[in-house]
């Protein structure tokens, strides 16, 4: 083994091996670039999937309960769930039936269509209630102007999206009129803008404004405990289907409907899930490219060193030993290619995470920069797969060595 490794080093990096060094370097760069792109493709896909869907879960929870199924975005008719039923839902634990977590919270919300007026400008919107139990720590991540404390303490407070703010040309501190329509009657009420939020999800930002539950309930004459829908938030995003099905079959009354948030925003979730297909296609293509590159380089090295192979055979070397010499060279290419590829991917990913070097149009991609989230389990897996598959394919061109005859190769040496 030591002698084979010594010969492999002399063949690849000894005197007069300039062309061989060039080919080895070229192959190493090819493997490194393939590994880099594979890791970054997975990191970008993870980033898009997790960050975009998390924005939706942060504001909408995971499962909704309402009185109708035809218009899932909002219902105007109030519903009431018994406190015992709400507690049953809160205490529901399906970890023994395939779920990975429990239910985090159950909140009643009021969503109602309104018309905003600021000066001569009118804009249709949907007002959404927030009460004291809402996760304001989550809301604070998306605030770009104003104060959540003022919103929570002052009556008739309002939070607009950046998109709606631009449409009606309003600023924090301005008073605007909201028109509520109920029973064919119009109820204009003045609200003060206390804050501006921005999620980048235009399906949400173009429609939703926030107000306090007590203010909306008073205007719409809803009784205590009446809401237009209930919102269920889970500990784990991947448990949506398990809890949604169980609630529908065992808990939710027959006069009400429950549906997952995926059904509310199908276009966004379909677009996010399509990124997995793109990632898988990239991985397969780059793996094929890596295999072809290694086979090509191996063939070139064997053909370029055919006289050396003939000489080794004439000196009594076995085909097995000669194959091992060239496979050691291939292993060196893979080792340094994988090492450099990992380092380059992690460096580029870190720079993108830290400085957001590649920006995106938030209205088109739901996020202002290319997101990066590394999955180190995937990185380890792709390293092992590339190493094993490429080495296995190296045995195909290695068979050429057994067909080389010393009598022919040394004739013109």
Write up what this structure looks like.
This protein folds into two domains: 2-54 and 269-409, no CATH class; 60-264, no CATH class. The chain contains 17 helices and eleven strands. It has helices at 2-13, 18-60, 83-90, 136-140, 148-153, 162-168, 202-205, 213-220, 240-251, 261-264, 266-304, 306-314, 319-355, 362-365, 376-393, 395-398, 406-409, and strands at 63-66, 103-109, 111-118, 121-130, 143-146, 157-161, 175-182, 185-197, 208-212, 229-234, 257-260. It is of the alpha+beta class. It is elongated, with a radius of gyration of 32 Å. A hairpin with a 2-residue loop joins strand 3 and strand 4. The model has no long low-confidence stretch (mean pLDDT 89). The longest helix has 43 residues, at 18-60. The protein has a six-stranded mixed β-barrel.
How many alpha or pi helices? Answer: 17
Assembly type of the chains comes to: single chain
Helix and strand pattern: HHEHEEEHEHEHEEHEHEHEHHHHHHHH
Number of domains: 2
Tell me how many strands there are.
11
End-to-end CA span: 27 Å
**Compute the gyration radius: what is it?**
32 Å
Shape: elongated
Stretches where pLDDT is under 50 for at least 5 consecutive residues are none
Question: How are the SSEs ordered, and which strands pair?
Answer:
Layout: H1 2-13, H2 18-60, E1 63-66, H3 83-90, E2 103-109, E3 111-118, E4 121-130, H4 136-140, E5 143-146, H5 148-153, E6 157-161, H6 162-168, E7 175-182, E8 185-197, H7 202-205, E9 208-212, H8 213-220, E10 229-234, H9 240-251, E11 257-260, H10 261-264, H11 266-304, H12 306-314, H13 319-355, H14 362-365, H15 376-393, H16 395-398, H17 406-409
Parallel strand pairs: 4-9, 6-8
Antiparallel strand pairs: 1-10, 1-11, 2-10, 3-4, 3-7, 5-8, 6-9, 7-8
Helix pairs in contact: 1-13, 2-11, 2-13, 2-15, 11-15, 13-15
